[in-house]
Write a structure and sequence with these properties.
11 strands; alpha/beta; Rossmann fold; two-stranded antiparallel ribbon; 8 helices; 289 residues; 2 domains; nine-stranded mixed sheet
């Protein structure tokens, strides 16, 4: 007998005897027959009914519907349209939509409340930030709210490329966040998985980016808890130079990840390796519920 037949026959039996019981509460024979219903059949019927009944969308064993995690991808709408037609926020957001159990939202500085109204920020589990030319336009009030959400409430924060100068990231690091130099001169990079056991490195192998804006060490930030990704720059003259590519911190209650690549004139965020790193970083940075 399949699950559907079990469900149908058992529910009919239950219904029939419930009517009899209502008519005569002292009918012991009926009570005995009802109690003889196989418990396994009853469980199968209950589960099948819950799964097949329209409108039942919550977990059978839970009192409340399961809520999705929320990741917001924020950018400032300055990336060239020939590389990122919908800006970097939407490029990243589109690549994250395959994450199971996540609501993915793209936000921009040009939207009301600079893309992060209180109600959205409050329910954000992970905030991804890409900025470059408009750092100074970000309101200090918003920066303070982001800082509180990370340090006191555990929201994850992911800073990308030139967002080392973003106000929220600088406040979280508490340092100047400067690199020694910045050169977009045709340098390439080999990205090396330094910590293969770290969750951000899951499914990622060493790979190369044909072009990268070179950020020269040292990087004026606190010592990272983990350097997940390392790198070797190759300059146009053939000389090489090391540089860290992916670093992690815990700041208060929240997790912070910085990713060095991501210059707006290069297609980094469409590359499969970078997409995998973004997916991994989002899940790693998510606070435990």
């Amino acid at each position: 007998m399949n699950i559907y037949k079990k469900m149908t026959s058992t529910l009919k039996l239950l219904t029939k005897h419930q009517i009899v019981i209502k008519k005569n509460d002292k009918n012991r024979k009926t009570m005995k027959k009802l109690n003889q219903i196989n418990r396994r059949d009853f469980l199968i019927s209950s589960l099948a009914t819950a799964a097949l009944t329209p409108g039942i969308v919550q977990c059978v064993f839970c009192d409340q519907p399961q809520k999705k995690h929320v990741v917001v991808v924020w950018s400032e709408n300055t990336a060239p349209k020939d590389v990122y037609p919908k800006d970097i926020n939407n490029a990243i957001a589109d690549s994250l939509k395959s994450l199971d159990g996540w609501e993915v939202i793209a936000a921009s500085i040009d939207e009301p409340h600079q893309g992060l109204p209180d109600d959205l920020l409050k329910r954000t589990d992970v905030l991804i930030w890409w900025g470059h030319k408009r750092h100074d336009e970000v309101k200090n009030e918003l920066v303070d709210k982001i800082y509180k959400r990370v340090t006191e409430e555990g929201m994850g924060f992911i800073s990308l490329h030139s967002s080392h100068f973003a106000k929220p990231y600088k406040k979280l690091m508490g340092t100047a966040c400067t690199w020694r130099e910045y050169k977009a001169d045709g340098t390439s990079v080999k990205i090396i998985v330094k910590d293969p056991n770290h969750p951000i490195a899951k499914g990622v192998k060493d790979f190369e980016l044909p072009k990268i804006e070179r950020y020269g060490e040292p990087f004026a930030v606190p010592e990272p808890e983990a350097v997940v990704l390392d790198g070797i720059y190759t300059k146009p003259d053939g000389k090489t130079e090391p540089g860290r590519m992916g670093m992690c911190w815990t700041v208060g209650k929240g997790k912070v990840f910085y990713f060095t690549p991501g210059h707006e004139t290069y297609d980094d965020f469409f590359r499969k390796e970078v997409i995998q790193i973004m997916k991994n970083a989002v899940q790693w940075a998510c606070p435990a519920k």
